[in-house]
Amino acid sequence: MADCTNCGTWNPDDKDVCWRCQTKLPRIEEKPKRKPRVLFGLPAWTWIIVVLLFLAPMFSQCLSAPAG
After folding, report:
1. Which pLDDT does position 57 carry in this prediction?
2. Of 48, 8, 46, nearest to 25 (Cα)?
3. For burial by CB atoms within 10 Å, which of 11, 13, 16, 37 has the most?
4. How is 39-68 classified by DSSP, letter by letter?
5. CA separation (Å) from 34 to 29, 42, 63?
6. What is the pLDDT at residue 28?
7. Stated pTM of the model
8. DSSP string, 5-46
9. Distances from the Cα of 54 to the Cαs of 1, 37, 57, 61, in angstroms?
10. C-alpha 16, offset from chain centre
11. Which parts of the chain sit beneath pLDDT 50?
12. Contact between 1 and 9 (Cβ < 8 Å)
């Protein structure tokens, strides 16, 4: 927890009031945790890898085809 806004004394996280001056301490709001993006039960990054592995042979055939 942050220092007391009144006297500047450090206070542990479990305190609601400053132990020295009894001023009410401000509460720090926690950010909600972001949920991972899931598609058909798998994270989105796994689907990107699967698609790239599937498309890699097709791109390599297109690029290595002889011109003519």
Report:
1. 86
2. 8
3. 11
4. ETTEEHHHHHHHHHHHHHHHHHHHHHSPP-
5. 15, 16, 40
6. 76
7. 0.41
8. TTT-----TT-SB-TTT-PBPPPPPPPPPPPPPEETTEEHHH
9. 50, 21, 7, 13
10. 28
11. none
12. no
Distance between CA 46 and CA 32 in Å, rounded? 24
pLDDT at 64: 76
Distance CA 57, CA 44 (A): 22
Length of the chain: 68
Tokens of 51: 């698609």
Give me the pLDDT at residue 3, please.
Answer: 85
Mark 54-66 as b/e (b = at least 16 C-beta within 10 Å).
eeeeeeeeeeeee
**Side chain identity, residue 48:** I
